[in-house]
Design brief:
Order of helices and strands: HHHH
Helix content: 55-70%
Shape: rod-shaped
Largest sheet: none
Distance between the termini: 103 Å
Strand content: under 5%
Structural class: mainly alpha
Number of strands: 0
Number of domains: 2
Oligomer: single chain
Length: 152
């Protein structure tokens, strides 16, 4: 056998796996690069910051009951900055403060029972004054039986 025959045999055996490995490596590199870029786009950063602020504010509200609002805000700011720094994200403090304030307002609006200084919201029973309207089951097109108990 001459050198060109050996080279042809080796290329025939080794080339397909090498091409597969190269394509897989390029696909993995592209995926990592695209995720890195997408994570740093402004829209994604804003939604990430809002979610992070909501989580941190709720956790601090539950763990620091009785602390002043300023102490809670400083703790929230520090916690959020630590998380952002660990992810190598640089977001101005003004945006972080705005996200914290928005999370506090949202929490007080939607979850008043966990806000410090307020009594838990008592559930009031809903009293039906008339029978509810039944909605047909879309799978069978039949109306469910509805028995309304009207209390006065």
């Amino acid at each position: 056998m001459n050198n060109s025959t050996i080279l042809n045999v080796l290329l025939t055996i080794l080339l397909p796996p090498l091409i597969t490995i190269c394509v897989a490596a390029l696909a993995a590199a592209w995926h990592i690069a695209s995720q890195y870029v997408l994570a740093r786009t402004p829209a994604n950063l804003q939604s990430y910051l809002a979610t992070l602020a909501q989580t941190v504010v709720q956790a601090i509200e539950q763990s620091m009951q009785g602390a002043s609002g300023q102490a809670k805000k400083m703790t929230a700011l520090q916690d959020i900055q630590n998380v952002l720094a660990s992810m190598h994200l640089n977001i101005p403090d003004a945006l972080v403060n705005a996200a914290i304030e928005a999370a506090v307002i949202e929490m007080k609006h939607y979850f008043p029972s966990i806000s410090v200084g307020t009594a838990p919201v008592q559930a009031t029973p809903i009293v039906a004054t008339q029978a509810p309207v039944a909605i047909a089951n879309q799978a069978t097109a039949s109306m469910p039986a509805v028995v309304a108990q009207v209390t006065q």
